[in-house]
Structures are given as C-alpha cells and as structure tokens.
Amino acid sequence: MARMDSFVEYTLELLEPLGPVQARAMFGGWGVYHAGRMMGLIVEDRLYLKTDDTTRPVFEAAGGEPFIYDPGHGRKPVAMSYWTPPADASDDAHALLPWARRAVEAALRAAQKKSAVKKKSAPAKKAAPAKAKTATPKPPRTKKPAVKKPSRRA
User: Fold this and answer.
1) What distance separates the 2 farthest-apart alpha carbons in the chain?
2) Is the pLDDT of residue 62 over 90?
3) How far is the C-alpha of 64 from the C-alpha of 102, rounded, in Å?
C-alpha cells in the first residue's frame, strides 16, 4: 500500500470536521472518501472536490479549477467532475467545510442517479411459463405383474 505523504495527511486533518474521511491510493493520486463514497481527489498536492450540475457553477464562480485528465497517447484531455475549492479554503478547515459538504452531496446524488439507472436497466424477471392444462386427465398407470420365465433345466 502506498504511504501517505504529508499533504494527504494535512488534507485529511482539514476535512476532519466533516466526519470520518479516508484516503485511498489510486492511479498516482489519492481518492478521498466519506461514508464509502468518493468525494474528492488529491493529485500533485492539489485537492479536487466532487461536483455535479448543481454545484459546479458555485465552484466555478468561486475561482475553482477543474481536474483535467490527460489520457496521453495523443488522445484529448478530459475535464472531470472534480474542482478545486477556492484558494482561501485550501488552508482553513472552517472555510473548507461548506465546499466539502457540497462534494459529499454531489457524490450522494451521483450514487442515487447510478442506482436509479441500474434499477431501470435491470431486466424484469420472467415468470415461469404456466403449465398447459389438458382437457381430460390421463388415467393413472397400472403396474403389470412380472412374467416368470420358464427355467431351462432339463
């Protein structure tokens, strides 16, 4: 397991007022989790918080910057749904708390949306086909007595 650096430890301390928060190493960075949901990302000593259509405009208006994933190999970079909190919140737990709460809410909405999509796309269980009933019931089979074979003794 990768060893946490001092920035990751410091960020987790800043997020303590939010409740239990863990960091897990992933792809050269760290995923930040609250209640089992990823609500943040730490890459190159920068904290990015989860956003969605509801919270992204607030992060953008406050001067946040999106996390841009560069897949390399000549492929186009992709803006992800993680944004930096405002600069004044990066060193102050009290100022960071409302931004972290927005990230937790965005992560919860994303999980609910994903759950609703799974429920819609799951195939409905097919009922077992009903057995066809015949108009007249078959008579019960009767067992015939065994036939004794004559012995071949001479």
Assistant:
1) 116
2) yes
3) 13
Question: Rounded to the nearest 5°, which phi and psi values hold at 108?
Answer: -65, -45
Cα–Cα distance measured from residue 86 to residue 60, given in angstroms and rounded to the nearest whole number = 9
CB atoms inside a 10 Å sphere around CB 70: 9
In degrees, to the nearest 5, what angle opens at C-alpha 55 toward C-alphas 43 and 64? 45
Report pLDDT for 141. 72
**H or E element, residue 140:** none
Q: Enter the pTM of the model.
A: 0.72
Exposed/middle/buried for residue 109 (C-beta within 10 Å: 0-12, 13-18, 19+): middle
**Helix then strand then coil, % of the chain, to nearest 5:** 30, 20, 45
Can you tell me the distance from the alpha carbon of 93 to that of 11, in angstroms, rounded to the nearest whole number? 9
Eight-class DSSP state of 95: H
